[in-house]
Design goal:
This protein is elongated. The N terminus is likely disordered. The longest helix is centred in the middle third of the chain and has 61 residues. About 75% of the residues lie in helices and about 0% in strands. It starts with a helix and ends with a helix. Keywords: Membrane, Transmembrane, Transmembrane helix.
C-alpha cells in the first residue's frame, strides 16, 4: 500500500515529504482504530457466518503492553546514554568557562600594561609637547 502511494505522489507531483508523512500517520491511526475498535453486537437470532474483523480485548491489551514495553526500553536506553554523557558535557562547559576567564584576564592585563608604557611622562610625549607650543 505504501509503495503505490509513493508512485501516486510522484505522478501527481505532491509537494514535499510533509504531506506524505502526514498521510502515512493518518493511515496508521485509521488502521489502529480499525484493529482496536470493538466489534458491533449482532442480534441474538442471527448466527455468525464469518469471524469479526476486530481484535479481542486481550489481544488489544497485549498489543498496548508491547508498545509500552518498547517505549520504556527506548526511554531507558536514552536515559543511560544521557547519564553517561552528562559528565563530558559538564567538563567541556567548565573547560570553555575557564578558557574564557583566562582570556578575559589576559586581555585586561594587556590593557593595563599598555597604559603604563604610553604614560604622559615618557620622553616621546615631552618632545611632542615642546614642538607644539
Amino acid at each position: 500500500m505504501v509503495p503505490t502511494m509513493c508512485k501516486e505522489s510522484a505522478v501527481t507531483g505532491a509537494s514535499g515529504d510533509g504531506e506524505h508523512y502526514s498521510w502515512l500517520i493518518r493511515e496508521l491511526c485509521a488502521l489502529l482504530v480499525t484493529i482496536i475498535s470493538p466489534t458491533p453486537r449482532q442480534a441474538r437470532g442471527i448466527a455468525r457466518s464469518a469471524p469479526s474483523p476486530g481484535v479481542s480485548p486481550a489481544a488489544a491489551a497485549s498489543m498496548l503492553l508491547g508498545a509500552s514495553m518498547a517505549l520504556m526500553l527506548c526511554g531507558s536506553v536514552t536515559f543511560a546514554i544521557g547519564f553517561l554523557l552528562m559528565p563530558w558535557v559538564a567538563g567541556v562547559t567548565l573547560l570553555f568557562g575557564f578558557v574564557g576567564a583566562v582570556s578575559a584576564l589576559s586581555a585586561a592585563y594587556k590593557d593595563a600594561t599598555r597604559g603604563r608604557v604610553s604614560s604622559p611622562t615618557s620622553p616621546a610625549s615631552l618632545n611632542s609637547d615642546k614642538t607644539s607650543s
